[in-house]
Task: structure prediction
Amino acid sequence: MTEPVLYLQSQISRLYMQREKLTVQEFLALDKKYDLLGLLEAGYEPFHLMGEQGVLNEIHKNINDETTEPKR
Result:
């Protein structure tokens, strides 16, 4: 993992916690369930060009998509 990826992960994590009014523990629980930090690492190339609000929206969309996905 490179320094720019770590920076993106820390910035977006902090902003997401502020936006959703989450504690660190609550964010870590979401990360464990939805692999948010992994998403940020895997999507670094497009995400670092999107701007913070765009990335926050993608994270929110990813969580909503996974919670509304029908069970098989």
